[in-house]
Amino acid sequence: MITGDQLQLRVAAIRDISPTLRLVRFENAGDGPLPPSATGAHLQVVLQGAQKEIRNAYSLISKPGSRDAYEIIVRRVPESRGGSAYIHEQLKTGDLLTTSWPGNLFAPQRSARKHIMVAGGIGITPFLSYVADFAGKGIDYELHLCCREEEKDSFAPWLPEPDKVFVHWDADGHRLDIPALLLRQPANSHLYVCGPDFLTNDVLEAAETGGWPDNHVHCERFGNALSGGEAFRAVLQRSGKEIEVGEHESLLEAIEREGVEVPCLCRGGACGVCLTSVLDGEPEHRDHYLGKAERAGGKHIMPCVSRAKSGLLVLDL
Amino acid sequence: MTILFKPDETYRGDYTYRNSDAAILRFPFPFPEDSYMYSVNIEPHVRGGFTPVYNNPIDVDEHYIAECRDRAITLERDPGRYAALPHMMTAQWDSIELLMECLSSDYPELFSLHKDGDRWTWINRPLGIEQSFTFGKEDTLPCEPFEYITRQIQGDFAILDQRNGSLYLDAGMVTAQADWSLQFDVGMDFMEWHGPVPLAHQAGVFERALKYLLMLRQGQPMRRLNWTMTVNPRLDTSPETYPEWGPDRTTLTLDNIGRKLHLRVELQTLWRLPRSNAILFPLRGYLASLDELVRVPKWGRRLHRVLSTLPRELAEYKGLVRFLPTALEYLSTYDDGAPTTSGCAAEISSL
Ligand code: FES
Predict the structure, then answer these.
(1) Is B71 in the active site?
(2) Is B302 domain-assigned?
C-alpha cells in the first residue's frame, strides 16, 4: 500500500487496561500490510453513532513503523461527545471501521539533543510511540506523566526504559515542579507537552519564562477536549444552504452532515487545512492556527473547532 | 510491457544517449499552452495523466541501466555527491522501504522484494543485484540505505527534514544537477535553495508552497514539472566538472542545435515519510533533443511559440540567452502557424 487516504480496519482486539482506559487493536480489513505508523502520529476514526457520524483523532501507540496492526488507547470521558462513549460501550471485536491514513502533527524533532515530554493523563498516548521509537537507540529523553495516583502504573507495559519515566500526582512530594524541570535541561533540548489545557498552559508559560526558544516547544492539544457551545446558524453561500449547528457538534460536522466537503486534517484547530473564508458574522476563534491579526480581522475561521459569536455566520462554501 | 533497455548509451564523452520513438511519445512535455505562463503547477501524484510517465509513482524507462551507470561514474569521481546528516538515518530507512515497495509492486519482472520479518532480500534484475539485509541495520548493506537505493533509481533525490516550521535539505544524492542543485549543500533550508528564482518569488509562491508542504500527508504524494535546456544529454553538470561541459554552450550552430540542444524536464515528486516525518523529494529528469521533439508536430509548434514568449529574466535564470536565437531559428521551420490544442499530450500514437 503506497498511496491512498482512507483505510478499512477491523477491530482485532479490545482490552480494558484500567476501569477507564480501553485499548483497541485494529488490523487491515483490506489487502496487505498497513502503511507504516509513525512516531507521534494519529488516526482519524469514523464511528457510526446512533444519530450521526463521529470522527475523532486518536494517537497511535504502536511501535513506529508497525504495519501489522495499529493500537490506540481511549479514555472514558464522562461528558463524552460520543467517540469515547461509543468506543467504551458499543465497539466490538470484528467491527469494521473507516479511518484516515496515519497523519502526523506531533513528530519529534530528530536534531534535538534531548527530548523532554510532559503528559497529563491520557495525554501520554503520543509519547508511547516516542519512547517505543527512542528506546534502545541511546536517545536521551525524560517522560513526565502527571496523573491520578491510582493510574500511575497503567502505562507501564508501554514504557521500555522505566528509569527515564517519572510519574507525578497531586500529593506532597509527588507534584511536578515544571520550572525546576526545565531549568536542568541541556541546551538544544526539545520540550513536548500533551494533556489538558491547564497543564499545557502551565508548561508553555514556564518555558516562556525560562527563555526556551519557541521552536523548541511543541504541544498537541486534545482536539476533542473542545466541547460544543451554543447552537447557531450558518449560511453556506456558494452551496446555497443554511444549516443549524447544534450544541454538541462542531461547525465542520454540521457542514459535512449537509454533504458539503471541507478539506480537513487534524479536526482540532491545529493544522490549518480547514481554513474557510467568512463573508459575514463574527467568529468565535478556538483554534491554535490563526495569528492574532487574522483572528481580529474576522475574515477566516477554522470550522473544525471554532464557532460563532453572532447567531449567524455566512461562509464562502 | 517489457522495457527494452539501452545499456550502452552514454551521457558523457561521445554522448550516444538517444530516445526511441516510444520514449519520445511518452516524454512529459511540460507546456500546456502556446505562450509561456508561470503557474504553481503542483497536483496530487496519482496514477495516470497525459503522459505514461505518470502511470507509476516511480517511473523506470529505457535509459535505466545507462543512467544508473552514469551515476556510478560520477560518484566514483566525487563521492561527495551523496551526503546525509546523521539524524537522517530513520528517513533513509523510510525511503528504502517506500522505493523498494514501489518498484517491486509496479515492475515485478524487474525487481522483487522478499521480507521475512526484518530480513529483506532485494533483487534488481536489470542491474544484476541480489542483496539480503536486515531492515534498520546499516551494517548489513554495502553503503548507507539512501545511497544504496538511489544508486538504483533514475533521477536525483533529496530528503527534507521538517523542523522549526521549515524544511531542510539534510540528505541528497545529486549527480544529475539541474539549476536547483548547483548550489546543493546539505543543511540548507527551503527558502535558501529556492531563493534565486525570479518572478515566482515576487508572488510569495515559495512561502505558500512551504506552508503547503509542511502539511503534506503520508500516502498523498504531490508532483510538479520543471524544465530547463541543456547542451548535450549530459547529467553531470556540476561546477567541479565545468571544464568538461561549460564550453559546449558556445558550440551550437543552426546545423547542430537540433541534435545538441535538449529540453530537460524534471518531474519533482514529494512524499511524506512515516517514521521520520521527513519528505522524500525525487527529482527525475527526462531529456529529449530538439530533433526528437519536433517529430511530434504539436510539440514542434508549441516549443517555438513558448520560447518566443519567454520573459527575459527567466531566459537569463535558466541560462538560455546565448543560444535562444539559434534555437528559435531552428524551431521556426517546424511552426507553420497552425492552431494547436491546449494540453501537453502528443496526440499521435506513432512517429
Ligand atoms: S482541520 Fe486542522 S485546523 Fe481544522
Answers:
(1) no
(2) yes
